[in-house]
Write a structure and sequence with these properties.
Elements (H helix, E strand, L loop, with lengths): L1 E2 L9 H7 L4 E6 L4 H12 L7 E4 L19 E9 L3 E2 L4 H9 L8 E8 L8 H12 L3 E2 L4 E4 L4 H20 L13 E2 L34 E10 L8 E7 L15 H6 L3 H10 L10 H9 L5 H7 L7 H7 L20 E7 L2 E3 L5 E3 L1 H7 L4 E2 L2 E2 L1 E4 L16 E4 L6 H15 L7 E7 L9 H9 L5 E6 L9 H7 L1 H9 L4 E7 H18 L5 H13 L3 E6 L1
The structure holds adenosine-2'-monophosphate.
The site of adenosine-2'-monophosphate has 14 residues, from strand 19, helix 14 and helix 16.
Length: 558
């Protein structure tokens, strides 16, 4: 596919906009690709109103030029900003965020709007979007339309669509323009049959060595390090799941960590993507289907986990043009895993631990997680060739207390154990250095003692050596009733409260965000109420304070 507009490399977005005749720039602070996809859709929508938009990664442009936007007549900027962790901006928006905080530029004459992407189950709901909106206005920018607050806990896509439906009329009124036409006629790509292509110049999903340059910039998602796979083993002894431990060699990289999963076209087509599917529904008019009810269509897709391929198979009449389909497909995103090793102990290697995702959906199709299945098949050598994995490391707030003497309480059921293997190894290293390590307590949970007690041998050895001062394991399915980590926490409430309240303990929670992390949090409230005699409000306040002090950290995913 050939882009309709030639790509121009330019670090000045103002110059790029001028050269390519655009008047709307949509920046995205994106970590997993959703904000990026929203930005692309907004940029494309602009054509319907006789304007020209472009989506842009703030990391690739000099955002301190924002005040120059007024040089372009009838221009505006939109920010699609995701919020992460403890209210943080995404990695690619960090520099822009820092700039906003420090600048006193005058943004008078700069028209803007912000759509935030967040999740209400997190305390700092949409903090980055809210800050961007507030700050641009403070600097004198003109807010063309109200801040949108997308909530991924309910339905981010619907929040975005309803914001967009009101956003464009507001923009039209502001600039005095009207909608010009249907957007389906406007394509970003055109299908061209090439007969004389030099295959050496075709990107076949392998990263070229040349493109990486660690001298110029640190490794990141666009410039990953190719790490050699040095170990790949199954951790669980039984059951029909595959829990894996993988080791990579990062000698000479001076790095940091995440993983990439190299895609191929087939994988992309299999990649399930809710937003596109919704778009299909609207675009190709499935109103005949399930009585025209969007919610029914969505549940037909979501509950049965139909990916794009499955939808095309089950609804043959759909038949979208292939160029349009390719235009809508998102880029496969990098995957983030917790590091299970300690850089102090293994400076040149990184370990991760993950469950291979594979199950049968309601339509009897086998769903295979793209990244974990790709990783599972990464052998240490392939016919004598060392296999590599493109990766980089992200900075994390999830780290051991500065003082080794502080006690730590680690709660990590399932693969939530990963970062704690690193923590425990580091505590062992500190001890060896003659440092006085504080109490090191682990709460782990799994289904069966004989099946998925991950790193059992290592953990028991650490316990014997006195590195791990307490190893608590909740086996959820070895008896009639469920036993979870929070039940064991409640059992040890006196000891825990003393460690937290009198001994400055740090609490770490890793694993499932939706249920486990919430239930563990509740257990701590109850401990504070029952042992510390706090009221519920006081208990909530107490743990909120611990969080701001960095003494209650979470590395959770849903
Ligand atoms: P289950 O699958 O038997 O319900 C790792 O996934 C372990 O976490 C499993 O033993 C799992 O138990 C358990 N688990 C499931 N839900 C949980 C929750 N809300 N809190 C704590 N542990 C949970």
């Amino acid at each position: 596919f050939t882009p309709v507009t030639p790509q121009i490399r330019e670090t000045s977005f103002i110059e790029k906009m001028k050269k390519t005749n655009r008047n709307i720039v949509v920046f995205y602070g994106s970590q997993t690709g959703t904000a990026e996809e929203f930005a692309n859709r907004l940029a494309k929508d602009a054509q319907r109103y006789g304007m020209k938009g472009m989506a842009a990664d703030p990391e690739e442009y000099d955002l301190s030029e924002l005040s120059r936007l007024k040089e372009i007549p009838n221009s505006m900027t939109v920010f699609c900003m995701a919020t992460y962790g403890e209210g943080d901006p995404t990695d690619n928006a960090q520099e822009f965020y820092d700039w906003m905080q420090g600048t006193d530029d005058d943004l008078e004459g700069v028209n803007f709007a912000v759509f935030g992407l967040g999740n209400k189950t997190y305390e700092h709901f949409n903090a980055t979007g809210k800050y961007t909106d507030k700050r641009l206005a403070e600097l004198g920018g003109k807010r063309v339309f109200d801040l949108g607050l997308g909530d991924d806990d309910i339905n981010l896509e619907e929040d975005f669509i309803s914001w967009k439906e009101q956003f464009w009329p507001a923009v039209c009124e502001f600039f005095g323009v009207e909608a010009t036409g249907e957007d389906s006629s406007i394509r970003q790509f055109e299908l061209v049959v090439h007969n004389d292509i030099n295959m050496n110049q075709v990107y076949n999903s392998q990263l070229r060595e040349k493109t990486r340059n660690s001298e110029i910039k640190p490794f990141d998602s666009k410039n990953p390090f190719l790490a050699t796979v040095t170990g790949n083993r199954k951790l669980n002894k039984g059951g029909n799941r595959h829990l894996m431990h993988i080791e990579f060699d990062i000698t000479d990289s001076k790095i940091s960590f995440i993983l990439y999963c190299i895609n191929n076209t087939y994988t992309i087509l299999l990649f399930y993507y809710r937003n596109i599917i919704l778009y299909f529904y609207i675009k190709y008019n499935f109103f005949f289907f399930v009585g025209g009810k969007l919610s029914l269509f969505l549940s037909w897709v979501l509950d049965s986990e139909r990916n794009i391929l499955a939808i095309l198979e089950d609804l043959p009449s759909l038949n979208p043009p292939i160029d349009h389909l390719c235009e809508l497909l998102p880029r496969l995103q990098a995957r983030y895993y917790s590091i299970a090793s300690s850089s102090k102990v293994y400076p040149t290697s990184i370990h991760i631990c993950a469950v291979v995702i594979e199950y049968t959906t309601k339509t009897e199709r086998v769903f295979k997680g793209v990244a974990t299945n790709w990783l599972k098949n990464k052998e240490v050598t392939d016919n004598g060739h060392k296999l590599t994995i493109p990766m980089y490391v992200r900075r994390s707030q999830f780290r051991l207390p500065f003082k080794p003497s502080n006690p730590i309480i680690m709660i990590g059921p399932g693969t939530g154990i990963a970062p704690f293997m690193g923590f425990i190894r580091e505590r062992a290293w500190q001890k060896k250095q003659g440092k006085e390590a504080g109490e090191t307590i682990l709460y782990f949970g799994c289904r069966h003692k004989n099946e998925d007690f991950l790193y059992q041998q290592e953990l028991e050895e650490f316990e014997r050596a006195g590195v791990l001062t307490q190893l608590n394991v909740a086996f959820s399915r070895d008896q009639e009733h469920k036993i979870y980590v929070q039940h064991l926490l409640k059992k040890n409430k006196e000891q825990l409260w003393k460690l937290i309240h009198s001994n400055n303990a740090h609490i770490y929670v890793c694993g499932d965000a939706r249920n486990m992390a919430r239930d563990v949090h509740t257990a701590f409230y109850e401990i504070a109420e029952e042992v510390g005699s706090l009221t519920h409000t006081q208990a909530v306040d107490y743990f909120k304070k611990l969080m701001t002090k960095g003494r209650y950290s979470q590395d959770v995913w849903s």
